[in-house]
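User: quick one, sequence for these tokens?
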């Protein structure tokens, strides 16, 4: 009986080890096809390069530093979208109506050189772009335009950097305040959500 139990235990151990090996292999292959993972959601190499080329007018130049800089910006974008979803902005009727309108436009122009892959990327880009705009409006732009006391406090704290009365440098102060709000926002998002960058995949793209 003891020998039988030991055999069963060994078989289970072998099966468990095999399952762990297969899982790690599948995960490794999957991760290798991604440039980053943000809060458990992958950014695929295909999506990233599509966005990169689109923002660079189809430019195929893929120097490592350029890709790295763009990936950091793209991750910041994804973090803001995550925050918007956590706030429930994707559930609002106005948002859903706007997305439906855009889907109808894409469908109407389906025969004009937009293949299925590009259509999916375009639709996702629009969905996330609207969310990023809406959450940025709440977190940054509205605060900078409506919170007069915050502008005054920011100016007083950094007055040595301006050397002029607030009335003369108001536009510059508001721009700097918005930048400060965004930096603090992104810092909090990076503490809230886990970000993993696949440096090996990025280096491989730079060698293509």
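Assistant:
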């Amino acid at each position: 009986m003891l020998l039988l139990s030991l055999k069963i235990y060994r078989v289970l151990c072998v099966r468990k080890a095999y399952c762990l090996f297969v899982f790690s292999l599948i995960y490794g292959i999957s991760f290798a096809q991604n440039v980053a993972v943000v809060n458990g959601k992958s950014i695929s190499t295909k999506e990233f390069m599509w966005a990169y080329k689109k923002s660079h007018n189809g430019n195929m130049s893929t120097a490592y530093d350029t890709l790295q800089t763009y990936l950091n910006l793209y991750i910041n974008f994804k973090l803001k979208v995550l925050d918007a979803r956590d706030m429930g902005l994707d559930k609002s009727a106005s948002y859903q109506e706007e997305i439906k309108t855009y889907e109808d436009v894409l469908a109407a122009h389906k025969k004009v050189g937009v293949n299925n892959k590009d259509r999916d990327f375009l639709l996702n880009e629009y969905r996330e772009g609207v969310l990023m705009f809406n959450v940025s409006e709440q977190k940054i732009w509205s605060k900078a335009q409506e919170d007069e006391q915050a502008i005054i406090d920011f100016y007083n704290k950094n007055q040595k950097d301006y050397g002029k009365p607030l009335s003369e440098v108001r536009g510059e102060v508001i721009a700097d305040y918005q930048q400060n709000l965004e930096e603090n926002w992104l810092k909090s998002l990076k503490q809230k959500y886990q970000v993993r960058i696949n440096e090996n995949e990025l280096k491989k793209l730079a060698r293509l």
